[in-house]
Amino acid sequence: MKVSDILRLKGNALFTITPDEPLADAVNIMADKDIGSLVVMEHGDLVGMLTFREVILAVVGNGGSVGSTQVRKAMDDHPVTCTLETDLDEIRRIMLDRHARYMPVMDKRMLMGVVSFYDVAKAVVDSQNFENKMLKAYIRDWPAEEEDEKNS
């Protein structure tokens, strides 16, 4: 399974913000849309990623409030990215190694979507459930076929 498969199932809703917007606006968007991340775009280019982790660090660093902090000051300005062709196992490894909960998906310089750790975990579970059903169906059918051959 590839990242393109995850995005196809997930849909293409994508939420972005610019680096010069107030962090308070970003927090409101994240709360309103019930999302854990925003992709930070400037002049059509990916320049960062803002997740609840960066928001919490900014709030703590600002004495417990968002204040007048801009997104630029809080965002991760070197987010790890992947492509549509990145394999599911590779995404899992990268996310675990980098402690990344959200990963922008790029096609050259174009943002195609974002995959979350939840999306990856769901894809793994769905894939395993499908494989499990196929194996159980095979095992269930196998003895019946063998019995038919013995009775012939």
Strand order of the largest sheet: 1-2-3
Beta-strand level of the residues, as a percent range? 15-25%
Shape verdict: elongated
For the largest beta-sheet, the strand count, sense and barrel status come to: 3 strands, mixed
The helix content is 40-55%
What is the compact description of this entry?
52% of the residues lie in helices and 20% in strands.
Task: Describe the protein.
The chain is α/β, with parallel strands linked by helices and 152 residues long. The protein has six helices and six strands. The protein has a three-stranded mixed beta sheet with strand order 1-2-3. It has a three-stranded mixed beta sheet with strand order 4-5-6. The model has no long low-confidence stretch (mean pLDDT 89).
